[in-house]
Amino acid sequence: MSSPLARRVSRDILPFVRHPAQYLGGEVNQLVRPGDWEAADVRVVIGFPDAYNIGMSHLGCQILYWLCNHTPGVCAERTYAPWIDAEAIMRERGIPLFTWDTRQPVGSADIFAISLQYELCFTTVLNMLDLAGVPVRSANRDDTHPLVIVGGPQADNSEPMAAFVDLVVIGDGEPSMAALLAAYKEYKREGVGRREMIPLLAKRFPWVYAPSLYDVTYHADNTIAGMTPRISGIPTKIDRCRETNLAEAPFPRKPLVPWTEVVHDRVGIEIMRGCPQVCRFCHAGYTKRPLAYRTVDEIMEIADEALRATGQRELGLLSLSTADYPHLPELAARANEAFGSRKVSLSFPSLRIDKMLQHIPWMANSVRKGGITMAVEAARDDMRRAIRKKVTDGALIDGVREVYKAGWNRLKLYFMCGFPGERPEDIDGIWELANAVSLERCAIRRAPAQVTASVGWLVPKPFTPMQWAAQPRVEYFREAQARLRDLARGRFVQSGAYGSVERTDIAPPRAGQFKRKGRGRVSLRTHDPDRSILEAVFARGDRRLSEVIERAWRNGARFDGWDECWNERHWRDAYDQTGVDPDWYAHRERGFDEKLPWDHIGLHMRRDYLENAYDDLFEQIQVSKPLPGRPLAHPVL
What we know:
Layout: H1 4-13, H2 36-39, E1 42-48, H3 52-55, H4 59-69, E2 74-80, H5 84-93, E3 111-115, H6 122-131, E4 147-151, E5 167-169, H7 173-189, H8 194-204, E6 208-209, E7 214-218, E8 224-229, E9 267-270, E10 272-273, H9 283-287, E11 292-293, H10 296-310, E12 314-318, H11 328-339, E13 345-347, H12 356-366, E14 372-377, H13 381-386, H14 393-405, E15 410-417, H15 424-439, H16 442-445, E16 450-457, H17 474-488, E17 521-526, H18 529-539, H19 546-555, H20 568-578, H21 582-586, H22 607-621
Parallel strand pairs: 1-2, 1-3, 3-4, 4-5, 9-12, 12-13, 14-15, 15-16, 16-17
Antiparallel strand pairs: 5-6, 7-8, 10-11
Helix pairs in contact: 4-7, 6-19, 10-11, 11-12, 12-14, 15-17, 19-20
């Protein structure tokens, strides 16, 4: 790394920033070497719009990095979002955004591929484009700039980012990236410029969406009237690219090893893509279909190579629902036999509670005893049925009892607040259930378990039955926070309900359940409601929000998912400057007849299936469905 840009990074940035190791590059198993960039036919930068310790933990970017650099004639390098201190130096001294591998200016790439993981990264994407010297608005770019392509979960509704991206890839990244690289190489060889290439790629691939090639019209009430292609040959409906055979999908056998601590410092292997549960709030459960599996033999082969190449001591078995992988006990037994002598432990995102019992025997020998995570989502059986979370209180208690017997003493329970039709007893039940889970250990180890109840706020997502739902207002979430904190501090505590709490305004408890009295060891963590409201605005937003995003970024917004960077004022000012009402996007109930901003994106699932599921949710809990155009009528807690 002896280029002028490399020397400037080493001289002007590294000595003056926190955690300089995150900017070093040259990690173990880096694929790019000096000279590769200059010799390549197609030069790609894979960008992750967050800090290095987050981006290096993202398996999808590692897969694309591996795929691109194993494609003849292609060189792919990585870039991440420079932290605030590094950004200040770069702007002051005129240092452009660079790649981590060999310090190339990002603006010199042919393709700048960016992963949109969630809504709070939007302003950081603009910041990276600007640091790279790429005009943030696609309309202002010319043939000297890279083609800006986005993919990832938020690509399914990229309309709020429509003004800033050239192409959107819908669906799985492996087959789509391979096809795009081949097409780009062909067009570049023929002398096709960047502007000409956008419609050519949109016509060639049914899963490529070019926002600039469509016009959107609106009704007087601000809802969408229609979306029409501006040129002939552009599809009115965008398909979804799918990788149905994971055995044929590329996967990094020698993953990058970070220089510094990252969120997930392990070898991670995707063992299954998709989820058979289809919980009614889960975007991935509806869009990642059909299911695709890796074989046990393939997983073991990848794991052996990756562990040897990295020296890691943790193997993550990753999927949306690892417990539903059909050969999980066999895989765990073989992994424990092969890697146990190397002191390699297994980990997984979370386990389905209803399958906890059958997995405890192999977990006891294979999984480190640090803690177990369970996604409960709702605290009462009827609400879980309504959101299609297939677990009961009885199954949960049976499962945690076996967990305690196997030696674990720390659990983390994930809950969500704000579901349509939610009642006060659903809020109270979060702490009550967490307390009961903690106390259940007393019968086995004579002391309660340490239980962390993590509470997030519902963000209705596209392509789910809740895509029509109004999100509760921030006041409701703050009241729920206060109510839970009161319970955690021992206020309103008598005896009864779940064995520790009884309130006069909640439904009576189920007979015979949760009889243990007292207070367990429960810590309560809640997300920031203001940021969940912002997520809801953009999760179901349209392209008129592009102006809001740009204004917020120019006001100073970036790294909005980080506590130390979040400033709600940036967004309040942006709404005022643009005249956009965020409540209209976040807190309004949609009707089934309304045209939604993402209706042009294919799901391969009938719309009436989602409609029936949304109606059934209210029937399950016997609550009236809100009228379209109205805010959700949650009661004051």
